[in-house]
C-alpha cells in the first residue's frame, strides 16, 4: 500500500496520535522544569542605586522631586547651546 492509502484508511489518526503524544511529552517536561528565580524586591524597595543618584545629581536632577517636561527641555536647550559654544571656541583655537 502507498502512504496516502494508509493515511486515508486510518483517517489520519496515526499522525494525530503522534503529534498529540509529542505535545503531551513537551508539556510534561515543561511542567517539571523549575521556574526562573527572580530577585525579591520586598526588602530593597526603598533602596536607591547610589551610582544612578550620583549621575543624576551631576546633572542637577533631584530624584525625589522630578522635573516637569518643560524644565527638562529648557535644561537640554541650555546644555546644547553651551556645547555648541564650547565647540566653536575649541574650533577657533585649533585653526590658529
The radius of gyration over CA amounts to 33 Å
How many discrete structural domains?
2
In whole angstroms, the N-to-C terminal distance is 93 Å
- How much β-strand is present in the residues? under 5%
Overall average pLDDT: 82
Question: What keywords describe this structure?
Answer:
96 residues; mainly alpha; elongated
Q: How are the SSEs ordered, and which strands pair?
A:
Layout: H1 3-10, H2 13-32, H3 50-58, H4 69-95
Describe the structure.
The mean pLDDT is 82. The chain starts with a helix and ends with a helix. It has helices at 3-10, 13-32, 50-58, 69-95. It has 96 residues and is mainly α.
In short:
This protein is mainly alpha-helical and 96 residues long. It has helices at residues 3-10, 13-32, 50-58, 69-95.
Amino acid at each position: 500500500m502507498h502512504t496516502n492509502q494508509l493515511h486515508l484508511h486510518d483517517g489520519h489518526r496515526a499522525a494525530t496520535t503522534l503529534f498529540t503524544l509529542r505535545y503531551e511529552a513537551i508539556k510534561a517536561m515543561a511542567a517539571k522544569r523549575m521556574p526562573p528565580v527572580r530577585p525579591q524586591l520586598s526588602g530593597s524597595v526603598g533602596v536607591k542605586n547610589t551610582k544612578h543618584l550620583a549621575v543624576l545629581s551631576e546633572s542637577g536632577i533631584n530624584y525625589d522631586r522630578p522635573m516637569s517636561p518643560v524644565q527638562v527641555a529648557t535644561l537640554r536647550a541650555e546644555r546644547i547651546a553651551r556645547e555648541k559654544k564650547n565647540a566653536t571656541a575649541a574650533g577657533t583655537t585649533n585653526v590658529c
